[in-house]
Amino acid sequence: MKLEKSIELYTKGQKNLVGAVNSPVRAFKSVGGVPVFIDHAKGSKIVDVDGNEYVDMVLSYGPMILGHRHEKVEKSIKKGLKKGYTFGASTNKEIKLAKMVCNAFPGMDKVRFVNSGTEAVLSAIRLARAYTGHNKIIKFSGCYHGHTDALLVAAGSGLATLSLPGSAGVPDEAVKNTLIAEFNNLESVQKHIEQNNDIAAVIVEPIAGNMGVVEPSQEFIQGLRALTKEKGILLILDEVMTGFRSKFGGAQELLGVEADITCLGKVIGGGFPVGAYGASDEIMNMVAPLGAMYQAGTLSGNPIAMACGIATLKELKKQNPYKSFNKKAKKIKEMLLASADRHGVALQVNHFGSMINPFFTDQEVTDFSTAQTCNTDSFKIFFWQMMENGVFLPPSQFEAWFLSSALSKKDLKKIERAIEISMVKVSEKQTKK
Ligand code: PLP
Fold first, then answer.
1. What's the CA-to-centroid distance between 144 and ligand 1, angstroms?
2. Which residue, 318, 336, 360, sits at the end of a domain?
3. Looking at residue 172, what is its pLDDT?
4. 241: Cβ below 6 Å to ligand 1?
5. I need a surface site. Which of 89, 208, 344, 356 has the fewest CB within 10 A?
6. Diameter over CA atoms, the chain
7. In the prediction, which pLDDT does 386 show?
8. C-alpha distances in angstroms, 318 versus 42, 67, 105, 250?
9. pLDDT in tens, 302-311
10. For position 90, which CATH number holds?
């Protein structure tokens, strides 16, 4: 596989960029080798600077649900560009997108647009604290909610329950109000509630996507809803990944559960930086300028980003690709399992809607500790073989693969072929050991 130009850019980029990237996962650290630099993308395909073409299963970590540069979306962006890029004043586009978002999530009367998922989550936490007057929050190990201090708590291993910061530069005080529970384990939440009387919120990825894809049991998610309601604790569903992806109404529609505060990102911007948090009037009226909880942003509700979001959601609603996503993801799951079986590779595959993950382990993956049983060396081999055979994957065992509505039958054939070749290589390495 020719990666000369990527290598050249990677070397050049080191001088003025940290690790030559602007987000750490792009550095390919967990799979080794040189990160691929991208030149362009269209539909289901992405092309690197050396001219290698891949079927894109990363889709910018989720936003590109229609594939790259959908005609109608691009038209709206171009139209918007002619009017100006940002005004520092409100536009009709914000109202339009807000209506679309609130209509999709029944528990949401009002929404506030921000610039990223991280911003959406940190604002939602502040809002929950303002509304309840309580300080503590419960998060689940293995769930990622962006890089806000309070949620950068070591997830997994023995440290997880100690509320120790998971990053240098996060003071102990910033995470002392963060309690860690286990995904799919209601008892671990109940315990915290019994021991603490000042919990503002429980925050969860309703379908976990940051420890690989892990589906919540109905008992867990419905139990979480009932328990928080009973105790006057707000339930924050972080749908940055799942919003408009699991279903048009997100994981909430798919699972039949309603959040007190919903966090959104990725798909609502269609590839431009947009995040959002929303809730009932009663909760949202706490936010400035109506209420005492302050939150602001120079570029929030940016007109081009709004235009892209509106066009993406309109097209998504029209296409209604969710059944087809499920079918295609199921097909990929079958391909993976059949190939692993043929070559004696221990593999579990979790898929939920248009998110899918192969885990190189023989244990069923239901939470962070079972996800940790994966053989990451096998993933590394698999990853590079898939790349060599034209499938662009997230460079981590624990990142979900995403589907776009542009994914064709031909792409699926290419994926099948790549899986078979890659699985043989994984199996060969296992035998050599
Ligand atoms: N929440 C979830 C569930 C995410 O998956 C992510 C990012 O992947 C975030 C929050 C943070 O979003 P952003 O990277 O836009 O800040």
1. 7
2. 318
3. 86
4. yes
5. 89
6. 65
7. 98
8. 20, 15, 17, 16
9. 999 999 999 9
10. 3.40.640.10
